[in-house]
Design goal:
It is built from five helices and 36 strands. The protein is mainly beta and 514 residues long. The chain has a six-stranded antiparallel β-sheet with strand order 20-19-22-16-25-26, with no helix packed on it.
């Protein structure tokens, strides 16, 4: 759906820079979701032959499961706090139509406060080469991925591209009247000339292509399709598949369906697949196969020349070897092996004497799979904690400390769980169970001769340790006489000692002073 935003809102970057600091000051810091990101997986420039002498930018947004991302905001770097260019429609599509010739420079990024986003290069709308102005348009594809360490975006290396004069304008600064400084001109001012194939409609259209190095998944495609009739023309949707070897080869992965197409709109109509839905092999031949969902015929624009050396157009069953489809097939590099949590040990069984803190333990975490393992660690009991509470691993092993606070626990059995979560890992979450036994001490605290009774011999030691109220007893051999937990040995301690006395040869209760 075209944006209805007024032209006044489409200011060039040189104007927006003056309010940049104010915008950033008013916008609270975004909450970032770990590993989730809007990736720019494809962008390109095209000229008059494909934009009907307009300056437009087509933004396509979809999720890694292949669903179209509706309601996604589009903005630029200078206005990161709001969706200055509107939002995507039900098909994940957003089109900008700036009409002011002075509004010539934009960058594009996704407005999603919870998720980081890539930024497109600066786009220049107008090429003023004589004898008449020729206008560039642009297309961007954005994919929201849950684990960006597994996806390699290849924004300037599509799986198939028909356009020999494709290029990208970038500039280091802008002069007056949209004249860029530090300008790098694209290879051509116009996209390749296009025409409709001879022979009218066909029940399917296809383009063969060879997958380039670095791409092992097909995630999207777009084409210019049409049916005859007065504008806007009859509407229809198309179904797209990727076929092995050619248009009648084995289908790879699922079919996917476009939004409604009508002849008069004069724009690329996109489809997308799940990130791991269409696996392909670099160097092998495949075909983009298109058919109308109503089963009827349609046409597709083709290049006038044989632009692409590694494939050609099929107009239904007719092989058109010297032309190519005006279409793009988008691919990414995808790490087939997901991250995998490897932790050791999985169980800690420990015992501690009442009123003591258990010494620290350790366990290890490593990535046993591909990509980067990004993990967080939590626990569910108050008497243990971990340090650090998160990290990353590609192949290295990380050592994590387990810290205990057990001195306040009563005698008995306890169990706690340490949980490791890692978004994108194929076995998340993983746990480490900690079983703890708090035991009674083997001797009463005032059993100075450790013969298991508290008798007259022990009283003699206690009497020697007596310091009186408020007088600290610092002799560590008298620790067993400080029975009421303060620093002196006085009448309060004597009362507890009397309660511990068992007599010679009679076992004392080891928790008698608790």
């Amino acid at each position: 759906m075209a944006s209805s935003t007024s032209t006044a809102r489409y200011r060039p970057l040189r104007q927006l820079r003056t309010i940049m600091l104010l915008v950033f000051a008013l916008v609270p810091a975004a909450t970032v979701i770990a590993d989730s990101r809007w990736m720019l997986i494809y962008h390109r420039q095209y000229g008059n032959q494909l934009n009907a002498n307009n300056r437009t930018i087509e933004n396509h947004c979809f999720n890694e499961n292949g669903s179209k991302a509706a309601g996604v905001g589009v903005t630029n770097l200078s206005n990161s706090g709001w969706a200055i260019f509107g939002v995507t429609d039900y098909a994940g599509w957003n089109r900008l139509n700036p009409l002011d010739p002075n509004n010539c420079a934009y960058d594009i990024r996704i407005y999603d406060p919870s998720t980081p986003t890539d930024q497109s290069p600066n786009f220049n709308w107008q090429n003023t080469q004589p004898p008449w102005p020729e206008y560039y348009s642009y297309i961007t594809w954005w994919m929201k991925v849950s684990d960006d360490s597994r996806v390699e975006a290849r924004p300037q290396t599509p799986a198939y591209h028909y356009d020999l004069v494709d290029g990208l304008n970038q500039a280091s600064g802008f002069g007056g009247s949209c004249i860029p400084t530090g300008w790098a001109e694209a290879p051509g001012a116009n996209s390749d000339y296009r025409e409709l194939p001879d022979g009218g409609w066909a029940t399917y259209q296809a383009q063969t292509f060879v997958v380039p190095a670095g791409i092992n998944r097909i995630v999207g495609a777009s084409a210019f399709l049409t049916r005859s009739g007065d504008p806007p023309g009859p509407k229809f949707t198309y179904r797209a598949t990727i076929r092995q070897g050619g248009p009648t080869g084995t289908q790879i992965g699922p079919a996917t369906t476009s939004r409604e197409v009508y002849s008069g709109e004069f724009k690329e109509v996109a489809v997308c697949w799940p990130l791991d839905g269409v696996p392909v092999t670099a160097g092998q031949t495949y075909a983009l196969h298109l058919e109308a969902t109503d089963g009827q015929g349609f046409n597709v624009y083709r290049t006038r020349d044989d632009n692409y050396p590694n494939g050609s157009l099929w107009h239904g069953g007719t092989h058109v070897s010297d032309h190519d489809m005006v279409a793009v097939v988008v691919g990414v590099g995808y790490d087939v092996v997901p991250p995998h949590i490897t932790r050791s040990p999985a169980l800690l069984t420990r015992s501690v004497v009442r009123k003591n803190n258990l010494p620290n333990d350790t366990f290890t975490i490593a990535n046993g799979g591909g990509g980067t393992l990004t993990y967080t660690i939590t626990d569910n009991v108050s008497w243990l904690s971990v340090d650090p509470a998160g990290g990353t691993s590609t192949s290295e092993t990380d050592t994590i400390s387990v810290l205990y606070s057990t001195a306040g626990l009563a005698i008995g059995s306890y169990s706690g769980t340490i949980t490791i979560n890692a978004t994108g890992a194929d076995n998340t979450p993983q746990t480490i169970v900690v079983n703890l036994s708090v035991t009674a001490p083997p001797f009463a605290p005032c059993d100075f001769d450790t013969d298991h009774d508290v008798d007259q011999e022990d009283f003699g030691v206690f009497q020697g340790c007596y310091s009186g109220p408020g007088a600290d007893q610092t002799d560590e051999t008298c620790a067993g006489a400080r029975l009421d937990q303060d620093a002196d040995v006085d009448g309060d301690d004597f009362t507890k000692f009397v309660g511990c006395m068992s007599g010679a040869g009679v076992a004392a209760v080891t928790t008698c002073a608790d």
